[in-house]
Amino acid sequence: MEETLIWKLEAKAKEIRRYIILMTAAAGSGHPGGSLSATDIVTALYFGVMRLDPKRPDDPDRDRFVLSKGHAAPLLYAALALRGFFPEQELITLRKLGSRLQGHPDMRKLPGVEMSTGSLGQGLSAANGMALAARLDGRDYRVYVLLGDGECQEGQVWEAAMAAAHYRLDNVTAFLDYNGLQIDGPVEEVMSLGAVADKWRAFGWNVIEIDGHNFREILGAVAAAKETKGKPTMVIARTVKGKGVSFMENQVDWHGTAPKADQASRALEELEG
């Protein structure tokens, strides 16, 4: 059963990466690097973990996902479309005038988007609110949130970290897409996060460190988080910026640069191979 699930997730991740390239190339703008680095995490959540019904996007018992690093919108849109929330054909309208697929997710326009994000640092606070609402409403849904490593230079992240631990929000699982690069360069040079795992532990979180491209480790971390009581879980996922496309991998220039037609062709050829 596990092998079948892993195979399914690998196939979905390849589809999502393919769409990220197609979408950003067609738009001529967007953020492929950080979308590709977090693809395996989001694939595991949407196709192997979360309780969702695309026909009932407002189901009060659904699990929630907050894309705190909202610039990785191409990744979220591809996952939602492949999960059935809206037609796949619409993906090619990314960033086009009048499209529902804006440069950052808008919860008012697209089913499946739980929070309008893009102002970095705010997503964990929103996830905490959803988790507290579950407690107040007596519901058992879980809240997942994806943060960027550069995003963790924002002070609000740490206020939210403190609040989640204080309120013992064990229905919150956060993933840190730790690819080591942000728009201005290496995270360590722009503003080092230092001993980031120790920081989250000091704030009262259960911390798990994984390879963010290993589905078994991702699923194992989610399972461990579900078993953890009385504290939220932070999964620090070591990832590769631009994962899956050789000439994009570990290259900071691809943070917010869309591939041109010839580059997109090369990328798609690699992904198909």
TrEMBL record:
The keyword Mitochondrion appears for this protein: no
> Which Pfam families does the annotation name?
Transketolase_N (PF00456)
- Provide the cofactor list for this protein: thiamine diphosphate
Looking at the record, the residues that make up the Transketolase N-terminal domain are: 13-266
Alphabetically list the UniProt keywords: Thiamine pyrophosphate
Domain of life of the native organism? Bacteria
Q: Does the keyword Zinc apply?
A: no
Entry similarity comment = Belongs to the transketolase family.
Question: Would you tell me the protein name for this molecule?
Answer: Transketolase
Taxonomic source organism: Thermodesulfitimonas autotrophica
